[in-house]
């Protein structure tokens, strides 16, 4: 008789996979235009600059091929601390932990801070991988609603006032700059209110910022002025050494996701614990790609690369939003983001969301249905489109296909 194997750990007994990765099979259909994944445009990768950086990394001898410190490569931590200072935050190399994508940074934070049953606040609609990490940690996820100016701090204040003391939250997760999926920029006064509430109720704020660099120009062509980061707001409002905000960022959207270089800026006790958690996750982020990233940031090519991406993504966003908003009513009402990679849309109630998805796939265009972004009680008449990967002519074609699909799905 064969022995019965021990069961999987409870959170993995019947785990739901990533709702976005489950769309992958559709992508290989011939002629499919994808507005689904948050993939940077391949035409914007600085392949030449990265090839030079890779040569330099290899020319440094064996260090790029050896294991490295868990905290990250010194030169890279230095360069990332400089980015943090350019974004208005105080930071030295020692305040930065390099992670294997910013996805790992969040995963480490959850391991270090969240126990089963702990309350975690999440802006909704939310980045699905965040919901997934919190579900696996068996957190109690409480949604905070958003509007066109980001998470609603009034609703947050009301919710906090009504929560019993034993349900006080450990964390709040937000993407203040050009959120995934809603594309919103959190208003400056809400950043202050958020930090105020974090200090009053004693929870940490995770400020996930992979998209802030991808800000579009203002309508008059001038560079867009950005509100202070939530972490910088925390520096200003909290007593020295008690900033409740952890800042996460990444080179995935601006340089290349394949580097798998993300980073965390946090207080020393939290950084130390995340470093210990990372020791058991992967020992260290690949020293080879860290070294390529450091050489690339030192090469001086990064600002021009980011500027090219801003311009191009703005053109693509306009093609998508104008295509669906101008002329005959498409029944798909789009947000108009001021940066990032995503347009959020609400469907006219006469459109059946499932019929729209099926008709869109049949027409040769795919997006992410909104339900992926809700921990519970989804608004099914919503969807997310990424304008980053397809070129403008493809976006124009995608718009035509979506318009046809919306007509077919209207009851
Ligand atoms: N946070 C958000 C909001 C994202 O959209 C993404 C990528 N889709 C990530 C984190 C993870 O990015 P990476 O691990 O590549 O840095």
Automatic annotation (TrEMBL):
Which Pfam families does the record associate with it? Answer: Aminotran_1_2 (PF00155)
Output the PANTHER family linked to this UniProt entry: AMINOTRANSFERASE (PTHR42790), KYNURENINE_ALPHA-AMINOADIPATE AMINOTRANSFERASE, MITOCHONDRIAL (PTHR42790:SF19)
What is its cofactor? pyridoxal 5'-phosphate
Stored InterPro entries: Aminotransferase_I/II_large, Class-I_PLP-dep_aminotransf, PyrdxlP-dep_Trfase, PyrdxlP-dep_Trfase_major, PyrdxlP-dep_Trfase_small
Q: What is this protein called?
A: PLP-dependent aminotransferase family protein
Specify whether Metal-binding is a keyword of the entry.
no
- The question of whether Nucleus is a record keyword is answered with no
Record keywords: Aminotransferase, Pyridoxal phosphate, Transferase
According to the entry, every stretch annotated as the Aminotransferase class I/classII large domain falls at 51-402
Species in which this protein is naturally found: Comamonas guangdongensis
Q: Which SUPFAM superfamilies match?
A: PLP-dependent transferases
| Gene Ontology MF terms | transaminase activity
């Amino acid at each position: 008789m064969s022995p019965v194997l021990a069961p999987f750990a409870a959170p993995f007994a019947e785990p739901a996979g990533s709702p976005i990765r489950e769309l992958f099979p559709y992508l290989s259909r011939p002629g499919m235009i994808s507005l689904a994944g948050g993939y940077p445009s391949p035409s914007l990768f600085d392949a030449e600059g990265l090839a030079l950086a890779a040569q330099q990394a290899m020319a440094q001898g064996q260090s790029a091929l050896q294991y490295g410190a868990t905290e990250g490569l010194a030169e890279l931590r230095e360069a990332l601390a400089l980015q943090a200072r350019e974004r208005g935050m105080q930071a030295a190399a020692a305040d930065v932990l390099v992670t294997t994508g910013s996805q790992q940074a969040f995963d480490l934070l959850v391991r270090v801070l969240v126990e089963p049953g702990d309350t975690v606040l999440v802006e909704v609609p939310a980045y699905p991988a965040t919901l997934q990490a919190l579900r696996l940690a068996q957190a109690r996820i409480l949604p905070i609603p958003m509007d066109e100016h980001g998470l609603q701090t009034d609703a947050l204040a009301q919710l906090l006032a009504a929560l019993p003391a034993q349900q006080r939250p450990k964390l709040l997760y937000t993407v203040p700059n050009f959120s995934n999926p809603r594309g919103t920029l959190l208003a400056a006064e809400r950043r202050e209110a958020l930090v105020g509430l974090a200090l009053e109720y004693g929870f940490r704020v995770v400020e996930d910022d992979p998209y802030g660099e991808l800000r579009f120009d203002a309508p008059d062509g001038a560079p867009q002025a950005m509100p202070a980061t939530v972490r910088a707001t925390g520096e200003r409002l909290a007593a020295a050494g008690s900033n409740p905000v952890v800042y996460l960022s990444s080179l995935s959207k601006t340089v290349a996701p394949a580097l798998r270089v993300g980073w965390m800026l946090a207080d020393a006790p939290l950084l130390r614990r995340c470093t210990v958690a990372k020791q058991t996750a992967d020992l260290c982020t690949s020293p080879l790609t860290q070294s390529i990233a450091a050489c690339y940031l030192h090469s001086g090519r990064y600002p021009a690369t980011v500027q090219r991406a801003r311009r191009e993504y703005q053109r693509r966003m306009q093609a998508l939003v104008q295509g669906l908003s101008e002329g005959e009513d498409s029944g798909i009402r789009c947000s108009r983001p001021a940066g990032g990679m995503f347009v959020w849309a609400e469907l006219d109630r006469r459109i059946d969301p499932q019929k729209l998805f099926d008709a869109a796939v049949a027409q040769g265009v795919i997006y992410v249905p909104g339900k992926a972004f809700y921990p519970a009680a989804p608004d099914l008449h919503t969807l997310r489109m990424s304008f980053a990967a397809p070129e403008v002519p493809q976006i124009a074609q995608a718009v035509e296909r979506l318009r046809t699909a919306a007509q077919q799905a209207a009851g």
